[in-house]
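Q: Hi! First time asking for a complex rather than a single chain. Here are the components, and I think there are four in total. Is that enough to go on?
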Amino acid sequence: MSTVKAAVLTAYEQPLELREYPALREVAPGEALVRVEIAGICGTDVHLWLGQLHVPLPVILGHETVGRLEAIGEGLTHDWRGNPLAVGDRVSWASSIVCGECYYCRVKRQPTRCTSRKAYGISYCADTAPHLRGGYAQQIHLRAGTAIFRLPDSLPSDAVVGAGCALATAIHGIERSPVEWGDTVIVQGTGPVGLAAIAVAKQAGATKILAIGGPPHRLELARQFGASETIDIGAVSDPAERHKIALAFTGGFGADVVIECVGYPGAVNEGIELPRDGGRFLILGQYANAGNISFNPHTITRKQLAVQGSWGFEPRHVDRALRLLEIPHWQQLFAGEITARFPLEQANEALRTVKNWSAGKTVLIP
Amino acid sequence: MSTVKAAVLTAYEQPLELREYPALREVAPGEALVRVEIAGICGTDVHLWLGQLHVPLPVILGHETVGRLEAIGEGLTHDWRGNPLAVGDRVSWASSIVCGECYYCRVKRQPTRCTSRKAYGISYCADTAPHLRGGYAQQIHLRAGTAIFRLPDSLPSDAVVGAGCALATAIHGIERSPVEWGDTVIVQGTGPVGLAAIAVAKQAGATKILAIGGPPHRLELARQFGASETIDIGAVSDPAERHKIALAFTGGFGADVVIECVGYPGAVNEGIELPRDGGRFLILGQYANAGNISFNPHTITRKQLAVQGSWGFEPRHVDRALRLLEIPHWQQLFAGEITARFPLEQANEALRTVKNWSAGKTVLIP
Amino acid sequence: MSTVKAAVLTAYEQPLELREYPALREVAPGEALVRVEIAGICGTDVHLWLGQLHVPLPVILGHETVGRLEAIGEGLTHDWRGNPLAVGDRVSWASSIVCGECYYCRVKRQPTRCTSRKAYGISYCADTAPHLRGGYAQQIHLRAGTAIFRLPDSLPSDAVVGAGCALATAIHGIERSPVEWGDTVIVQGTGPVGLAAIAVAKQAGATKILAIGGPPHRLELARQFGASETIDIGAVSDPAERHKIALAFTGGFGADVVIECVGYPGAVNEGIELPRDGGRFLILGQYANAGNISFNPHTITRKQLAVQGSWGFEPRHVDRALRLLEIPHWQQLFAGEITARFPLEQANEALRTVKNWSAGKTVLIP
Amino acid sequence: MSTVKAAVLTAYEQPLELREYPALREVAPGEALVRVEIAGICGTDVHLWLGQLHVPLPVILGHETVGRLEAIGEGLTHDWRGNPLAVGDRVSWASSIVCGECYYCRVKRQPTRCTSRKAYGISYCADTAPHLRGGYAQQIHLRAGTAIFRLPDSLPSDAVVGAGCALATAIHGIERSPVEWGDTVIVQGTGPVGLAAIAVAKQAGATKILAIGGPPHRLELARQFGASETIDIGAVSDPAERHKIALAFTGGFGADVVIECVGYPGAVNEGIELPRDGGRFLILGQYANAGNISFNPHTITRKQLAVQGSWGFEPRHVDRALRLLEIPHWQQLFAGEITARFPLEQANEALRTVKNWSAGKTVLIP
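A: Yes, that's all I need. Here is the structure of the assembled complex.
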């Protein structure tokens, strides 16, 4: 095979193009080549396709990927956890690389805000060699410094990509706005991040979890993941009515922790009224700048809230995510999120299922 | 003396009326009578006068008070700290009483959100016996359960009332959104809460403090309290310009902690851009519901902020405030805030100086 | 019934005496009378019987009790959680009362170290009226200020007494030395406190738990409670061998959290080597002063440990314990701990089963 | 100059030997050569000389060093903080290098416990090229990855070496066992670490600090650094008497935070009784394994203590230390600690002053 295929975003809101790039064989020290086996489609990919986050075009999308090592550069002898690496190993990796040297990496220990952070499937122009820096392709080239994780045989690729970046995102956010055992939790949104937040809250010992979202097939998933109760925003379309149900669910005072995983900015106004006074509100879904809302800051003072933002995740959180997925219960649930599989040639159809919320999790099999 | 005088708010935005009430002599178990020596006028009193917070009218305002014990009820043998109490002792007290039994007091340990919290000078109707439940009066009646503090001789009343409720408010807020030694801090607002926030940040070891406020006589105080630099919002009226100066002050990234002590809701939009990514933003000034702002929640996610609200304070924080005031440096600064003294008969003139920001701290000498 | 029976400790290491006291009918404001239905025997009772903790003799032991309200004093209208109380209600209560006023209660918020804390079944001399202040009796008199909890019908008394004070003790300790989800935990000791620590660690999301204890019937319980692996100290009597197994269990570095629930001081030396560097070591079992050990403090520095002590619990922790017991899984496990029931007349036999570790949990049915 | 001189430890408890090594001129990428201007003698150097910590011999001691860059390798363009580096710059550096890849570096974020950590002046055999890896020499060779800090002109070398590794050590420890503003603190030991702990506690806002140590010239320093009171262990040689004074100092209950900076293991037994119940005890001085003590673990349970160990420091803490030293007050105090200066030829005399506590801080001027 002298060329590899990739689905490339060449212009916002236009169909991805199937392009061919020279297959790579050689790697410099620390680098790796991976034959992609499965690539997840993340909601962020839709935002990218819509042009809501600006990236260098053309770009090969795909930042949730599992594949097999085809080549490993000199000095790359072990994975992030210290396990030995060999050609043929099945691996996944943290989607971002940070510099480790800037003010945020070093002095303030906020590496997710590294001033020169770059992410596979997002930040690399496909016109520049080695071209293959996204998951929607048959091969991907990993830079030196990528946090690679060798997957244990007991951990199926479907669970890893089913969990996707959503699980590490939820873990990072909940690390900053913790759920304690016995807490009552409300999760806004039942997309991949919402389901992952339910999973982490459940694992952390939350005893009551209310999920607000939809459509019904996602609420069914939410219940399987651990939601004690759900509100279908399609059926209960009035936020005041949802507020009433949520208060009743929490004994009248509100939840200990509320986790926003919606993305639509109006969800912040709905969510901020749902914690009990002195509670926590984790804003996990506002990744894209979707504009302003009319907001009353007095609410934060009066309810004495701890409102927390969270951006991305570090390799540590991928490590925790993969460990969580070693628990059979979670492994099955996250693998089960995948309900639609497409070949690379149908990347546009695949993207459409995500845009339309018509599947659980959608993946490409390049 | 068979009657005592009090300045009473009888109708919003109307002049306070000087009324007479029967002087009290007897107290039930746990209660106390205090001859008021000095009563501070808080910015909240202006909000109350304007009707921005609804309270039972008529009301004797005044929740920052020092006086001498005239009578102490059975069982009231010691102050909150365990020091013995005797008639004639000079005392101050926490302005609020909480039930100690509700969901917020017990289960969630958020006593400032007690469902039946009542505050002297705010929550008690003056038509109801014993009438005298505010500081703008010659005598005040303290309920059983009031957290009374006997003042050491070395601590002048001026320092206690000069610090007022602002200092305990700042201490409570900064407990929830801590300043660590070496931090760079920005304080928005140079009224009593802003100055107190500067003091607490300085005591906690902040090495650089920028105060944004005015007018110039308050910025001069801010520098005395510990601000390394100030921005006069009168002179630099463009928020974009202030943002530029603030960023330069913090080395380009923003402050570790930003403390909003303004009250005007627009200050939240200016303030939320001032912490570094991963920093803390304490909203301390939005006590009154002053309406909505156009706000972008993406900022919280992108900057990965910890935004914290804070409501009131507990007796613990009065204790810490009084201990801070035992340090001569702070004692002198807080006592020095008082620049205007009025007799009870001139309560309206006194209130006006606070409304117009024309004094440092204004007090009544009943 | 004009008298009630009680099993009374009159002299250390001597058999408890069955005595009769005047039955109580009237209560002062805030007080309550309870007809005892079931009283747990705690390991502490054995320490008390052996004279290892000094208490006023004679004393009616018993600080883990469930019964029905026979009389409630004026003003005692609601339980600690705010639920209404009525004669006939089935209740339990926090065993200790604190003053709420001392340096530890108020200033430092360490109420378990209240300078005048008193505990039912421990601190009250049975010679002093109203005599009945311990659970090993048909009736118990509760002082005003006791934190009473009305038990929901769905929560059997067996679960409450099966969990006993051990569960609240574990909750308090782990609050100070937290288990995070995904943590690897080692619990030393498989008595009631050890089992409770396993339960709390499991609920908090620990993914691997090693229990070190015995005898085999208790290790079987430990596995049911959530231990992934157990070491029988009877079978593996060499601490060096146990250390080797524990290290292997934790991947060679040690556990994130080690919880000592043994009581024997030598356990501290074994336990302190078991956390990974930078890990946490919770000393939960050293309630009695059982003397000195030869100890190397360099270990704490070198391993950079956080070593935490914990003393008793607050009503909040009883609340959390009772909420945990509403989860059917835990309810059944804790109720199932009870394997021996005795009438009051056989209190000495009952005490002996605890002393000899020959039962799970032993209770009296007065 | 074709050779450089170094004072070399060739055998424990034997005089250091003055040896010559080939002067270095060339550096590989990322490396640096530094002309040593001043090298501090740390108490650890005495432990090393005594053979209490095993290191590869021969070794050039010295891990507290300031010098000027003579050569900088390719790619080494900026210091740890991002400031540009040039030949001739005056610099200092973190004494240790960690791998950044092991379980402690990555997964558990305890880099001071890196499994392959190496420290200048301690871990490098002087027989192996490039030989010059300790501060007691005219030249030192810095490995790629060393955290180098360019010193601002306003920061004298004396302050940096006067503070030495003690200040970063104290900062790291107190980060784990925090001093809050208003706290009462007891510091055991008035050597460099004790004085640094006083400085950090003072900067963090401690309002009362008791230093227990000696000899008198060091207690005088302790008072200058911020101790409100001191106990001379020479004058008050009975620990029970010291305990009485310490309790009186803290109002009878003990300190909020006690910091052990002695090293002698018996100090742990004295110190552990000095925090108030629920307080913190930071064991900062037990770097060398100096054997066992007879210790009662019940104390930790009964007093509900948080006992914290701390090992070394990270580059972040050097950064904080250097920032602290930019404050003129601290700069002068730490620079003033230096009371003895020796040429390299008198390294043995220098070491002796430290061993005998006969100077403040002793330095070599190579």
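A: Chain B has two domains: 3-164+313-365, 178-309. Let me know if you'd like any chain examined more closely.
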